[in-house]
Amino acid sequence: AQSVAQPEDQVNVAEGNPLTVKCTYSVSGNPYLFWYVQYPNRGLQFLLKYITGDNLVKGSYGFEAEFNKSQTSFHLKKPSALVSDSALYFCAVRDNTGFQKLVFGTGTRLLVSP
Amino acid sequence: GAVVSQHPSRVICKSGTSVKIECRSLDFQATTMFWYRQFPKKSLMLMATSNEGSKATYEQGVEKDKFLINHASLTLSTLTVTSAHPEDSSFYICSARSLTSGSGEQYFGPGTRLTVT
């Protein structure tokens, strides 16, 4: 079965510093990986996805993610954090069977301090 | 593009009543819609998958008679919480997958906060 793990409940970073939010995955077959962000009392917003191709994927709001097959990781990164990036981040992998539902990680809260 | 709306955004109801939540894809057709429930500071729990014109597929442990799902058209799915109880209070989020999305990407609605008193 497909699964993702987000080992950090919370990541703290100062504004202007680079940030990394970790995600590892387990899939059978080719991985389809996604990152979503959730602001308080809102739905999820799509940030980026990896399907195939370049291991470095660029997404919305200056975020990028690096796909590493050997480490089965898909860490989310941003070179310079903003206070407004503070939110809940979810990594997800597509189930390659049935309805191809998304399997979400437990989420990582990012807190960017001024 | 790819906007999903939910209505209402917030609802308070009395125990024992039923509540309907609508999920609409505004600018695309969605063959498949998903309903999630999110507890405070927790991840999303998939409740069910609905396909237009067919019965919803419920995840293990989700009562289909309590959470009625109807996917009447390619742009509308509804979730009805029947005989609501305080433990049904939660944040309910829907998502939709486009007909043309080969990657399985889902677009999420803004969520509905249900409070049962």
List the helices and strands and how they pair.
The complex is a heterodimer of chains A (114) and B (117).
Chain A: E1 3-5, E2 10-14, E3 19-21, E4 24-26, E5 33-38, E6 44-50, E7 56-58, E8 64-68, E9 73-78, E10 87-94, E11 102-104, E12 108-113
Parallel strand pairs in A: 2-12
Antiparallel strand pairs in A: 1-4, 3-9, 5-6, 5-10, 7-8, 8-9, 10-11, 10-12
Chain B: E1 4-7, E2 10-13, E3 19-25, E4 30-38, E5 44-51, E6 57-58, E7 67-73, E8 76-81, E9 90-98, E10 106-108, E11 112-116
Parallel strand pairs in B: 2-11
Antiparallel strand pairs in B: 1-3, 3-8, 4-5, 4-9, 5-6, 7-8, 9-10, 9-11
Short description:
The complex is a heterodimer of chains A (114) and B (117). Chain A is mainly beta and 114 residues long. Chain A has strands at residues 3-5, 10-14, 19-21, 24-26, 33-38, 44-50, 56-58, 64-68, 73-78, 87-94, 102-104, 108-113.
Structure description:
- The complex is a heterodimer of chains A (114) and B (117).
- Chain A has strands spanning 3-5, 10-14, 19-21, 24-26, 33-38, 44-50, 56-58, 64-68, 73-78, 87-94, 102-104, 108-113.
- With 114 residues, chain A is mainly beta.
- In chain A, strands 2, 5, 6, 10, 11 and 12 form a 6-stranded mixed beta sheet that branches.
- In chain A, a hairpin with a 5-residue loop joins strand 7 (56-58) and strand 8.
- The termini of chain A are far apart.
- By secondary structure, chain B is mainly beta.
- Chain B contains no helices and 11 strands.
- Chain B has strands spanning 4-7, 10-13, 19-25, 30-38, 44-51, 57-58, 67-73, 76-81, 90-98, 106-108, 112-116.
- In chain B, the strands form 2 sheets. In chain B, strands 2, 4, 5, 6, 9, 10 and 11 form a 7-stranded mixed beta sheet that branches. In chain B, strands 1-3-8-7 form a 4-stranded antiparallel beta sheet, with no helix packed on it.
- In chain B, a hairpin with a 5-residue loop joins strand 5 (44-51) and strand 6.
- Chain B is globular and about 40 Å long.
- In chain B, 34% of the residues are buried.
- The model of chain B has no long low-confidence stretch (mean pLDDT 90).
- Classes of the chains: A mainly beta (114), B mainly beta (117).
- The A-B interface holds A 32, 34, 36, 41-46, 49, 51, 90, 94, 99-102, 104-107 and B 4, 6, 32, 34, 42-44, 46, 49, 51, 57, 91, 93, 95, 97, 103-111, 113.
